[in-house]
Design goal:
Blueprint lengths: L7 E8 L6 E7 L5 E8 L2 H20 L1
Antiparallel strand pairs: 1-2, 2-3
């Protein structure tokens, strides 16, 4: 199985701190265009995990 590295996750802190931090995430394609975006509340690693799940779903749908 090959790894598709054409999608990148970018996180931005929008406000708050600690467990009340508000993160905005975006998934960019190879051209830099935003493919999907969203937000998550909580620590950075949980926001990244949310974005990673969305990225994996996009990769699965594009490989079909």
């Amino acid at each position: 199985m090959t790894q598709d590295n054409s999608l990148q996750i970018k996180l931005r802190l929008k406000g708050g701190s600690g467990p009340n931090a508000n993160w905005h995430w975006e998934i960019h394609d190879a051209a830099g265009k935003v493919v999907k975006s969203g937000s998550a509340v909580g620590p950075e690693h949980k926001a990244f995990a949310t974005a990673r799940v969305a990225k994996e779903k996009l990769e699965q749908s594009s490989s079909r």
